[in-house]
Amino acid sequence: MENRAPTNVPLHPLLAGRWSARAFDGERTIDGRTLRGLLEAAIWAPSSGNVQPWRFIAGLRGKDAEHQARWQAIFDGLEPGNQRWCDRSAALIVALAVPAFESGRAAGQPNGWARHDVGAAGLSMALQAHAVGLHSHPMAGFVPDKLRASLAIPESLDIVTVWSVGYPGDPDSLPEDLQRRELAPRTRRPLEEVVLAGL
Ligand SMILES: Cc1cc2nc3c(=O)[nH]c(=O)nc-3n(C[C@H](O)[C@H](O)[C@H](O)COP(=O)(O)O)c2cc1C
Questions:
Q1: How remote is the C-alpha of 62 from its chain's centroid?
Q2: Sheet containing 158-166: which strands, arranged edge to edge?
Q3: Residue 79 and residue 44: Cα distance in Å, rounded?
Q4: Which of 98, 124, 129, 168 is most solvent-facing, going by the fewest CB within 10 Å?
Q5: Rounded to the nearest whole angstrom, what is the distance from the C-alpha of residue 114 to the centroid of ligand 1?
Q6: Sign for the pseudo-dihedral over CA of 140, 145, 146, 147
Q7: What is the 109 CA–ligand 1 centroid distance (Å)?
Protein backbone atom coordinates (compact mmCIF):
# COMPACT_ATOMS: atom_id res chain seq x y z
CA MET A 1 0.00 0.00 0.00
CA GLU A 2 1.12 3.55 -0.74
CA ASN A 3 0.35 6.67 1.27
CA ARG A 4 1.99 9.42 -0.73
CA ALA A 5 2.27 12.88 0.83
CA PRO A 6 -0.23 15.30 -0.80
CA THR A 7 2.46 17.94 -1.30
CA ASN A 8 1.76 21.46 -2.58
CA VAL A 9 5.04 21.46 -4.48
CA PRO A 10 6.15 18.38 -6.44
CA LEU A 11 8.79 16.41 -4.52
CA HIS A 12 11.04 13.57 -5.53
CA PRO A 13 8.96 10.34 -5.31
CA LEU A 14 11.33 8.95 -2.68
CA LEU A 15 10.54 11.86 -0.36
CA ALA A 16 6.81 11.99 -1.05
CA GLY A 17 6.47 8.21 -0.93
CA ARG A 18 8.24 7.43 2.35
CA TRP A 19 5.82 7.05 5.20
CA SER A 20 5.55 5.36 8.58
CA ALA A 21 3.50 2.28 7.78
CA ARG A 22 2.33 -0.26 10.35
CA ALA A 23 1.18 -3.08 8.06
CA PHE A 24 4.12 -5.36 7.27
CA ASP A 25 4.21 -8.66 5.43
CA GLY A 26 4.87 -11.22 8.17
CA GLU A 27 5.84 -13.90 5.63
CA ARG A 28 8.74 -11.98 4.12
CA THR A 29 12.17 -11.58 5.68
CA ILE A 30 15.08 -9.25 4.91
CA ASP A 31 18.46 -10.72 4.02
CA GLY A 32 21.79 -9.59 5.44
CA ARG A 33 22.74 -7.76 2.25
CA THR A 34 19.61 -5.63 2.32
CA LEU A 35 20.17 -4.83 5.99
CA ARG A 36 23.74 -3.78 5.16
CA GLY A 37 22.34 -1.42 2.52
CA LEU A 38 20.07 0.21 5.10
CA LEU A 39 22.90 0.67 7.58
CA GLU A 40 25.28 1.89 4.89
CA ALA A 41 22.71 4.54 3.94
CA ALA A 42 22.49 5.53 7.60
CA ILE A 43 26.23 6.11 8.00
CA TRP A 44 26.37 8.38 4.94
CA ALA A 45 24.19 10.93 6.66
CA PRO A 46 25.84 14.24 7.57
CA SER A 47 27.06 14.77 11.13
CA SER A 48 28.52 17.69 13.01
CA GLY A 49 32.30 17.61 12.67
CA ASN A 50 31.83 14.24 10.91
CA VAL A 51 32.06 12.56 14.32
CA GLN A 52 29.29 10.09 13.29
CA PRO A 53 27.73 9.79 16.74
CA TRP A 54 25.38 6.96 15.69
CA ARG A 55 25.46 3.31 16.67
CA PHE A 56 22.97 0.60 15.72
CA ILE A 57 21.79 -2.78 16.95
CA ALA A 58 19.82 -4.79 14.40
CA GLY A 59 17.79 -7.95 14.64
CA LEU A 60 16.40 -9.77 11.61
CA ARG A 61 13.36 -11.96 12.10
CA GLY A 62 13.96 -15.51 10.92
CA LYS A 63 17.59 -15.11 9.76
CA ASP A 64 19.55 -17.16 12.29
CA ALA A 65 19.35 -17.86 16.01
CA GLU A 66 21.40 -14.79 16.99
CA HIS A 67 19.43 -12.39 14.82
CA GLN A 68 16.14 -13.93 15.91
CA ALA A 69 17.10 -13.59 19.61
CA ARG A 70 18.04 -9.93 19.06
CA TRP A 71 14.85 -9.27 17.11
CA GLN A 72 12.87 -10.78 19.98
CA ALA A 73 14.78 -8.80 22.64
CA ILE A 74 14.09 -5.55 20.76
CA PHE A 75 10.44 -6.49 20.25
CA ASP A 76 10.07 -7.30 23.96
CA GLY A 77 11.49 -3.86 24.79
CA LEU A 78 8.80 -2.02 22.80
CA GLU A 79 5.76 -0.39 24.44
CA PRO A 80 2.68 -2.61 24.11
CA GLY A 81 1.07 -0.10 21.72
CA ASN A 82 3.91 -0.63 19.25
CA GLN A 83 4.06 -4.40 19.80
CA ARG A 84 0.49 -4.55 18.46
CA TRP A 85 1.77 -3.91 14.94
CA CYS A 86 5.52 -4.64 15.11
CA ASP A 87 5.11 -8.40 15.35
CA ARG A 88 5.34 -8.60 11.54
CA SER A 89 8.46 -6.41 11.25
CA ALA A 90 11.23 -8.13 9.32
CA ALA A 91 13.91 -6.01 11.00
CA LEU A 92 14.00 -4.10 14.26
CA ILE A 93 16.87 -1.63 14.51
CA VAL A 94 17.84 0.30 17.63
CA ALA A 95 19.41 3.70 16.89
CA LEU A 96 21.80 4.90 19.59
CA ALA A 97 23.65 8.15 20.15
CA VAL A 98 27.14 8.73 21.49
CA PRO A 99 26.24 11.77 23.62
CA ALA A 100 29.79 12.97 24.41
CA PHE A 101 32.76 13.58 22.16
CA GLU A 102 35.06 10.57 22.30
CA SER A 103 38.31 12.20 21.21
CA GLY A 104 39.90 15.50 20.25
CA ARG A 105 40.02 18.75 22.17
CA ALA A 106 36.39 18.38 23.31
CA ALA A 107 36.75 14.75 24.53
CA GLY A 108 34.26 14.07 27.31
CA GLN A 109 32.20 17.19 26.57
CA PRO A 110 28.56 16.77 25.52
CA ASN A 111 27.92 16.70 21.77
CA GLY A 112 24.81 18.86 21.46
CA TRP A 113 24.17 17.60 17.95
CA ALA A 114 24.41 13.85 18.59
CA ARG A 115 20.67 13.20 18.55
CA HIS A 116 20.22 15.49 15.58
CA ASP A 117 22.77 13.43 13.65
CA VAL A 118 21.18 10.11 14.70
CA GLY A 119 17.88 11.47 13.36
CA ALA A 120 19.54 12.34 10.07
CA ALA A 121 20.97 8.82 9.86
CA GLY A 122 17.51 7.39 10.55
CA LEU A 123 15.94 9.33 7.70
CA SER A 124 18.75 8.29 5.39
CA MET A 125 18.01 4.66 6.29
CA ALA A 126 14.27 5.20 5.82
CA LEU A 127 14.81 6.63 2.33
CA GLN A 128 17.06 3.72 1.34
CA ALA A 129 14.40 1.35 2.68
CA HIS A 130 11.72 3.03 0.58
CA ALA A 131 13.99 2.94 -2.48
CA VAL A 132 14.24 -0.86 -2.27
CA GLY A 133 10.52 -1.42 -1.67
CA LEU A 134 10.58 -1.62 2.12
CA HIS A 135 8.49 0.25 4.64
CA SER A 136 10.01 1.74 7.77
CA HIS A 137 8.63 3.26 10.95
CA PRO A 138 10.53 5.02 13.74
CA MET A 139 9.44 4.63 17.35
CA ALA A 140 10.04 6.41 20.64
CA GLY A 141 7.63 3.99 22.35
CA PHE A 142 10.09 1.61 23.98
CA VAL A 143 11.20 0.80 27.53
CA PRO A 144 14.84 2.00 27.72
CA ASP A 145 15.81 -0.01 30.82
CA LYS A 146 14.49 -3.20 29.28
CA LEU A 147 16.39 -2.68 26.02
CA ARG A 148 19.54 -1.65 27.88
CA ALA A 149 19.49 -4.82 29.97
CA SER A 150 18.57 -7.34 27.29
CA LEU A 151 20.91 -5.91 24.63
CA ALA A 152 23.74 -5.02 27.05
CA ILE A 153 23.73 -1.37 25.93
CA PRO A 154 26.35 0.57 27.94
CA GLU A 155 25.30 3.65 29.92
CA SER A 156 27.64 5.67 27.71
CA LEU A 157 25.13 5.38 24.83
CA ASP A 158 21.67 6.98 24.61
CA ILE A 159 18.83 4.96 23.10
CA VAL A 160 17.18 7.34 20.63
CA THR A 161 14.70 5.35 18.55
CA VAL A 162 13.77 1.87 17.43
CA TRP A 163 13.02 1.39 13.74
CA SER A 164 10.68 -1.20 12.35
CA VAL A 165 11.42 -2.22 8.75
CA GLY A 166 9.74 -4.74 6.50
CA TYR A 167 7.97 -5.40 3.23
CA PRO A 168 4.54 -3.80 2.85
CA GLY A 169 1.67 -5.88 4.18
CA ASP A 170 -2.10 -5.91 4.00
CA PRO A 171 -3.71 -3.19 6.18
CA ASP A 172 -6.49 -5.72 6.89
CA SER A 173 -3.94 -7.62 8.99
CA LEU A 174 -4.02 -4.78 11.54
CA PRO A 175 -6.48 -4.32 14.43
CA GLU A 176 -9.36 -2.09 13.33
CA ASP A 177 -8.23 1.12 15.07
CA LEU A 178 -4.76 0.83 13.54
CA GLN A 179 -6.27 0.09 10.13
CA ARG A 180 -8.06 3.43 10.30
CA ARG A 181 -4.82 5.22 11.18
CA GLU A 182 -2.99 3.35 8.43
CA LEU A 183 -5.48 4.46 5.78
CA ALA A 184 -5.81 8.06 7.00
CA PRO A 185 -4.38 10.75 4.71
CA ARG A 186 -0.99 12.05 5.84
CA THR A 187 -0.99 15.65 7.05
CA ARG A 188 1.48 18.40 7.81
CA ARG A 189 1.33 21.90 9.25
CA PRO A 190 1.41 24.33 6.30
CA LEU A 191 4.69 25.94 5.30
CA GLU A 192 3.18 29.32 6.26
CA GLU A 193 3.04 28.13 9.88
CA VAL A 194 6.46 26.56 10.21
CA VAL A 195 8.58 28.90 8.11
CA LEU A 196 8.82 31.88 10.43
CA ALA A 197 10.62 34.02 7.88
CA GLY A 198 11.79 33.65 4.33
CA LEU A 199 8.92 31.97 2.53
C1 LIG B 1 11.27 10.22 17.03
C2 LIG B 1 9.99 9.58 16.55
C3 LIG B 1 9.28 8.76 17.40
C4 LIG B 1 8.12 8.11 16.96
N5 LIG B 1 7.49 7.21 17.80
C6 LIG B 1 6.46 6.48 17.34
C7 LIG B 1 5.92 5.43 18.12
O8 LIG B 1 6.37 5.11 19.23
N9 LIG B 1 4.86 4.75 17.61
C10 LIG B 1 4.34 5.03 16.38
O11 LIG B 1 3.39 4.35 15.96
N12 LIG B 1 4.86 5.99 15.60
C13 LIG B 1 5.91 6.73 16.03
N14 LIG B 1 6.49 7.68 15.23
C15 LIG B 1 5.98 7.90 13.86
C16 LIG B 1 5.28 9.25 13.72
O17 LIG B 1 4.03 9.17 14.34
C18 LIG B 1 5.18 9.59 12.22
O19 LIG B 1 6.48 9.79 11.70
C20 LIG B 1 4.36 10.86 12.01
O21 LIG B 1 3.01 10.62 12.36
C22 LIG B 1 4.41 11.32 10.56
O23 LIG B 1 3.99 10.29 9.70
P24 LIG B 1 4.87 9.85 8.44
O25 LIG B 1 6.20 9.36 8.98
O26 LIG B 1 4.07 8.73 7.82
O27 LIG B 1 5.04 11.02 7.56
C28 LIG B 1 7.63 8.34 15.65
C29 LIG B 1 8.36 9.19 14.80
C30 LIG B 1 9.52 9.79 15.23
C31 LIG B 1 10.30 10.67 14.27
A1: 19
A2: 54-60, 91-97, 158-166, 135-139
A3: 30
A4: 168
A5: 19
A6: positive
A7: 30
Residue 42 burial (10 A CB sphere; 0-12, 13-18, 19+): buried
Name residues whose C-beta falls within 8 Å of residue 26's C-beta, 6 or more positions apart in sequence.
87, 88, 169, 173
Within 13 Å and on the Cβ side, how many CA atoms surround 106? Answer: 10
pLDDT above 90 covers what percent of the chain?
A: 98
Dihedral angle computed from the Cα positions of residues 115, 77, 145 and 161, in that order, rounded to the nearest 10 degrees = 0
Q: How buried is 131 (Cβ within 10 angstroms: 0-12 exposed, 13-18 middle, 19+ buried)?
A: middle
Distance of CA 102 to CAs 50, 71, 76, 97, 114, Å? 12, 29, 31, 12, 12
pLDDT in tens, 48-97: 999 999 999 999 999 999 999 999 999 999 999 999 999 999 999 999 99
Please name the amino acid found at residue 135.
H
Mutate to test the pocket of ligand 1, among 18, 20, 158 (most ligand atoms within 8 A of CB): 20
Question: Contact at 8 Å (CB) between 38 and 138?
Answer: no
Domains of the chain as residue ranges with CATH: 22-157 (3.40.109.10)
